[in-house]
């Protein structure tokens, strides 16, 4: 018994409905670089994410050991500062670039596509800036007006 044949048009045969085609001008090879970035950042994220999960949840006291003092202890070492910084930046840029692709694929009306993209870019920039500030301005050992260490400071401050 033979199966019916289905012919799928080869890519770029010009049979795309004109309403789905958009201007090609001025983009250079940005889309190719964005495609490559997704693959490269994906590979790096696997390492960053699994070491992050392993060191936070599987060594020491596991999830019950995670509190302010745990974060303070980790960020006392520059390795973890930069690890978490790389995780923040790559996850946000990778995630935002992925959502940018989805918006471009599915939002057909120019206005909707523009505003969804704007919301995405503003939210991404805000989270990256705020997260970076938190990582670099984090102060685990807080003092009162007289300069004395606050009672609930983590052990590494004493
Ligand atoms: C853990 C390691 C990760 C790997 C290996 C990975 C890999 C990838 C790859 C290769 C793509 C491109 C798929 C395509 O073009 O068809 C992709 C797309 C995407 N990724 Fe990731 N990713 C990872 C983590 C993340 C994280 C943490 C986020 C969110 C912050 C995220 C959000 C997205 C989104 C929204 C897309 C677009 C999906 C689409 O085009 O349909 N990914 N990922």
TrEMBL record:
Indicate the transmembrane segments per the record.
32-55, 75-93, 114-138
Keywords for the protein's UniProt record, in alphabetical order:
Heme, Iron, Membrane, Metal-binding, Transmembrane, Transmembrane helix
User: What's any one GO cellular component for it?
Assistant: membrane
- Check the record and name the Pfam families matching this protein: Sdh_cyt
Subcellular location, record wording? Membrane
Report the superkingdom from the record.
Bacteria
An example Gene Ontology molecular-function term = metal ion binding
| Protein's UniProt name | Succinate dehydrogenase / fumarate reductase membrane anchor subunit
Organism in which the protein naturally occurs: Micrococcus flavus
């Amino acid at each position: 018994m033979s199966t019916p044949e289905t012919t799928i048009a080869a890519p770029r045969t010009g049979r795309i409905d004109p309403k789905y085609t958009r201007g090609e001008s001025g983009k250079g090879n940005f889309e190719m670089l964005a495609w490559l970035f997704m693959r490269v950042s994906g590979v790096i994220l696997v390492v960053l994410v699994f070491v992050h999960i392993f060191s936070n949840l599987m060594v020491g006291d596991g999830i019950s050991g995670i509190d302010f003092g745990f974060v303070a202890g980790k960020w006392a070492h520059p390795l973890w500062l930069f690890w978490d910084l790389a995780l923040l930046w790559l996850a946000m840029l990778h995630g935002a670039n992925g959502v940018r692709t989805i918006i471009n694929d599915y939002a057909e009306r120019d206005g909707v596509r523009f505003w969804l993209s704007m919301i995405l870019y503003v939210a991404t920039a805000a989270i990256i800036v705020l997260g970076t500030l938190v990582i670099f301005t984090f102060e685990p050992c807080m003092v009162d007006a007289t300069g004395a260490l606050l009672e609930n400071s983590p052990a590494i401050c004493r």
